[in-house]
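Subject: sequence -> structure tokens, single chain

Hey, anyone have a minute? Need the predicted structure for the following. Not urgent.
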Amino acid sequence: YNDNDPNQHEPGDTRPIGFDIYETGFAWTFPMVEDVVFLKFEVKNCTTYTMRKMIIGVCIDADVGSVMDDVTGLILRKWFPAINDTVKYVVWTSDQNPPPGWGAVAFMLIKAPRNLGLTAFKCFTIDIDPPRDWARYMMLAGYDYRTGRYEPYDSINPIPADKRFMMCSGQFDLVPGQKEELVIAVIGADFNISDTIPLARRARDARWFWDNIVKIKEKGIVTHRNEDIQLLVMPNPVRGRALIFYTIPESGPVLLKVFDASGRLVKILFEGNKNAGNYHLSFPQDIGSGVYFM
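Reply:
Had a minute. Here:
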């Protein structure tokens, strides 16, 4: 899609700039990312001139539960000892008083143009929606358009209201024909405002899956029938952590073994019954370097 239709612009305010956006969604049923959807946005300069000081962002109005009691917050960069990892660029939104079993919807910046990261996060209510194009650009750049004050990262606002927010990355230039990418992971997770560890764990797994599975396989993604998919180890060659993905077309006994290059049995990873579906487990890290077969 693009911004070229003048009927979709406000007279005296916005105008066509001349870019195309190519949006692709990715989702899997593997337990590790079964509650995650990846959205990739490619922005292309379709003009004959260089677009300067561009900022790309997504604006989200999640409305979790009741519209008027949303709470929203940002994990800009935080070390979580419970998962032994740093989680960054995650915006979560939830209901002020969620019913039992409810969680949060989170949005994580996975990839930004020129590796700029999350350069602004602005949270606001409907009554202070930026009314004009210049005000929207100021907000994308991390400014409070009402005061001109530079405040790129809004903190958690505990007051429930009908909230929306923007996740932004910039500035950068686009020459004619050039593309830049923004990737967002939409994550569903158990959540409590005083305990963000379940969300952090989901976010960590989503980032690892994108970096080690999607990026490697993206250009070669094809659709298979379940009976065609047997076994996949990613990344391969294994560097540090790796996962074994496998599909069971019908319920029955499953036996997963690892053999070395001489044919010697090294390890039994799983032996038992499984229902039809997709599964994954960690590749063993205690067997040393070498060539192995499964």
